[in-house]
Automatic annotation (TrEMBL):
CDD domains: Sema_1A
UniProt KW Membrane keyword: yes
Record-linked Pfam families: PSI (PF01437), Sema (PF01403)
Family according to the record: Belongs to the semaphorin family.
Single GO cellular component term: plasma membrane
UniProt-recorded name of the protein: Semaphorin-1A
SUPFAM superfamilies: Plexin repeat (SSF103575), Sema domain (SSF101912)
Organism: Artemia franciscana
């Protein structure tokens, strides 16, 4: 128990603080651009492609072409399923909502040519289109098996690299045949070593390889139970399959584990990857690197936690160049493969002609696709951690390498959640500094959808200028749910809500800076950085006038105190919705105002809170306890409950202690009991009366006694057959040999009966072959003694009329209560 307590305390200290946002935001109707598609049913939107200033969105029976900045619908495509396919889908047991054509894959083959695939009522189909005269023209239609999923709820990823389409999906109706496919190559079919019930997340091309990210059942964990691991797999672009039976199989498929965990002696893992963004090239840690970002969660039945981790491409490549993992036997451990067992050329290495690879290499990579090492997280820990059901991460979009007026570079993260929120966060340590540390800052929390709506897709879109450059001032965040699409600005630098330089800098938002000329907090323009004041790292700028706003950097004074939030700064909970009539906690006129619903939350005592405009309404509550306090309280409560339970059990046992005489023997031999017909329960509550010798119940165990008047056969082999003593044939009456009444005293015992006489007479029996005359049993009143009474007994021996054949029994005076 003490070890468990120490483990919890270690986790608590290693756990990142649940950082609170600087600002809570709920939008008014005029600022948030929304697109709802067909309001009569759920479209199940899926962002398929972004082409310059347009968004290509797959939906139910339709492809939407939307303008990214305004979400205006342009000319799209309608693709319905034939009636006979719908009827067949219904006959297979699917419901009517599933038996439609959900468009799930779009790839641009060349300028003006696209390939579009859909579920087509659980019979996947694909089409090639050409854009001519302002409209799409159908070129051909063909089977989409291996390109599009059957079920619209299945996760699928696809990427077009060098004119080839790479897809991760399932290839059968039941979803039991997952694969990574590029015509005509695929992964091994029904082989858990290659694909073990994967959920695909993303894919991208990099260098000589194409990478796939997914989560799957961990085959190396099977001997310990069942667990989900995050994976990254790769294949070579030049892979053309192998000879003979490897003709339609990948010869370079490898996969490894992504490690997103809280470090320590017992790491806490976030095992289930949910989304990915990148790769992004930039200056990280003082060097040029390529980074990918991903969101991870714990299992749904575990401690609810989410995290954002970053990975360097060079670390990923190092894992694939490292050792392989294998299991020597069915019940053996998974261990690293010795380097001398790895054949040449090395399995997984890109070659000019994969069809010339030897069989030893092909057989090895088929049985050893898993790498031994895991890909470590960049900086050694998650960049952001959130706990609680309201902060379960789904998607992530990253705006990389944004440069601030002071020359620092930051990657701004936008993270979607299951309850319709978008979290905007940044690592306060600049990416281009040599210092490798994590200091997360949550700039704002935006309630985009209803709290019951999960965010399914996100992307950052910036308009392209006529010269082809990207406009940094026109960035929009595109957020998708199953039935709604929202476009919003990347920043909220409001001069009517943030009035001082200190408040503007304290936001630590790379997009916002204090304009010295206008004396306003505005969106930063990189044209004249000298005119702006900003400090993302500390939240304090020396050139700003004195203000009550203080830095959020931890100090000795406030490290142990939770951030202070004025009671007026957090409004009552409400649900964000595009329908104004659904709001019950606010006046409808307040929602119709053009001002954004923004609230700046102070995090230190004495900070001012401006509350002129409409207040935000979030479900954020003031935390009463820290994680450390909760862990210690739970552990202490467990220990107290353990000791209290032990003490209560001990006292109860002392009070209800059994008497030594309550132990009954097991009736595994021919024992005889005399039952005491009394009220035993009441007798035991009162003072127990001492039983007389004649009232004692006795039991006997058989012992070997020599036959009467018969010499022992010392030459016989083995032990004599044990049997109960019997009387001779001339017995006048029969009696119970275990009877202890005074009138039936044992014949060869003079005076009071000794119940243990048989034990004490063993030596006599063994040393003498015959009984003495005084030890002879009473037969027909011989020697002047009274004969035995003829009466029946009702013990285990029943009527003992034939008692006595040369074997005696041992008696015990043990009291027995029945």
């Amino acid at each position: 128990m003490l070890g468990l307590l120490l483990w919890f305390i270690g986790i608590a200290w290693g756990w990142q603080e649940n950082v609170r946002p600087k600002m809570y935001v709920q939008y008014g109707l005029d600022d948030m651009l929304r697109f709802q598609g067909n309001a009569s049913f759920v479209d199940h939107f899926r962002l398929l492609e972004t082409d310059r200033n347009w968004l290509l969105v797959g939906a139910r029976n339709k492809l939407y072409n939307l303008t990214a900045t305004t979400l205006q619908e342009n000319q799209g495509l309608d693709w319905f399923t034939a009636h006979e396919h719908v009827q067949m889908c219904l006959l297979k047991g699917r419901n009517e909502d599933e038996c439609h054509n959900y468009l799930r894959l779009l790839a641009i083959k060349s300028p003006g040519k696209i390939v579009l695939c859909g579920t087509h009522a659980f019979k996947p189909m694909c089409r090639d289109y050409s854009f001519k005269d302002g409209q799409y023209v159908l070129d051909k239609q063909y089977s989409g098996q291996g390109l599009s999923p059957y079920d619209p709820s299945h996760n699928t990823t696809a990427v077009m690299v060098d004119g080839d389409l790479y897809v991760g999906t399932v290839a059968d109706f039941s979803g039991a045949d997952p694969l990574i496919y590029r015509e005509p190559l695929r992964t091994e079919q029904y082989d858990a070593m290659h694909m073990s019930a994967p959920n695909f997340v993303s894919s991208f091309g990099h260098g000589e390889h194409v990478y796939f990210l997914f989560r799957e059942t961990a085959i190396e964990y099977m001997n310990c139970g069942k667990s989900i691991y995050s994976r990254i797999a790769r294949v070579c672009k030049q892979d053309r399959g192998g000879p003979h039976r490897f003709k339609f199989r990948w010869t370079t498929f490898l996969k490894g584990r992504l490690n997103c965990s809280i470090p320590g002696d017992f790491p806490f893992y976030f095992n289930e990857i949910q989304s990915m963004s990148g790769p992004f090239e930039g200056k990280y840690g003082g060097k040029r690197h390529e980074i990918i970002y991903a969101t991870f969660t714990t299992p749904s039945n575990s401690i609810i936690g989410s995290a954002v981790c970053a990975f360097r491409m060079e670390d990923i490549e190092a894992v694939f160049d490292g050792a392989f993992k294998e299991q020597a036997g069915l019940n053996a451990n998974w261990l690293s493969v010795p380097s001398q067992k790895v054949p040449e050329p090395r399995p997984g290495q890109c070659v000019n002609d994969s069809q010339t690879l030897p069989d030893i290499t092909l057989n090895f990579i088929k049985s050893h696709p898993l790498m031994d090492d895991s890909v470590p997280a960049y900086l050694g820990e998650p960049l952001l951690i959130k706990t609680g059901i309201h902060y379960r991460f789904t998607k992530i979009a990253v705006d990389p390498q944004f440069r601030t007026p002071d020359g620092k570079v930051f990657d701004v993260m936008f993270i979607g959640t299951y309850n319709g929120k978008v979290i905007k966060a940044v690592n306060a340590e600049s990416t281009d500094t040599a210092t490798k540390s994590v200091r997360p800052v949550i700039i704002e929390e935006i309630q985009v959808f209803s709290q019951k709506v999960a965010i399914t897709h996100m992307t950052i879109h910036r308009r392209r200028n006529p010269d082809g450059t990207i406009s940094m001032e026109s960035g929009r965040l595109i957020v998708m749910a199953d039935d709604e699409i929202v476009s919003l600005k990347l920043q909220r630098c409001y001069t009517d809500k943030i009035r001082t330089c200190s408040e503007c800098v304290a936001l630590q938002d790379p997009y916002c800076a204090w304009d010295k000329r206008k004396s306003k907090c505005v969106s930063y323009n990189s044209a004249q950085p000298i005119a702006y004041l900003q400090s993302v790292q500390t939240g304090v700028h020396p050139s700003c006038p004195d203000s009550k706003v203080q830095s959020r950097l931890p100090s000795k004074d406030n490290a142990n105190h939770p951030p202070f939030v004025p009671s007026s700064s957090v409004a009552e909970p409400s649900i964000v919705s595009h329908d104004v009539k659904k709001s019950s906690n606010r006046n409808a006129k307040e929602f119709m105002r053009n001002d954004d619903m923004v609230k700046v939350i102070s995090h230190n005592h004495g900070r001012e809170s401006y509350d002129d405009g409409p207040r935000i309404s979030g479900d954020e509550s003031i935390p009463l306890y820290t994680v450390e306090t909760l862990v210690i309280a739970v552990a202490a409560g467990s220990l107290v409950a353990l000791f209290v339970g032990f003490g209560a059990g001990y006292c109860c046992g002392k009070k209800c202690k059994k008497d030594e005489e309550d132990n009954l023997p097991y009736p595994d031999t021919e024992y005889e009991y005399f039952e005491q017909r009394q009220n035993c329960a009441r007798a035991r509550l009162a003072q127990e009366q001492k039983l007389l010798q004649s009232d004692e119940a006795t039991y006997a165990e058989p012992i070997l006694v020599p036959a009467l008047n018969k010499p022992l056969n010392t030459n016989s082999r083995g032990s004599p057959k044990p049997q109960i003593r019997k009387l001779t044939n001339n017995v006048i009456g029969s009696t119970n040999v275990f009877d202890s009444s005074p009138n039936n005293a044992f014949p060869f015992a003079e005076g009071p009966r000794d119940p243990y006489a048989s034990f004490r007479s063993r030596d006599t029996f063994s040393s003498s072959a015959r009984f003495t005359p005084q030890q002879q049993p009473l037969i027909n009143g011989v020697n002047g003694h009274t004969p035995l009474d003829d009466r029946d007994t009702f013990g285990t021996l029943r009527n003992n009329k034939n008692i006595g054949d040369g074997f005696g029994t041992a008696r015990s005076g043990k009291k027995v209560y029945l």
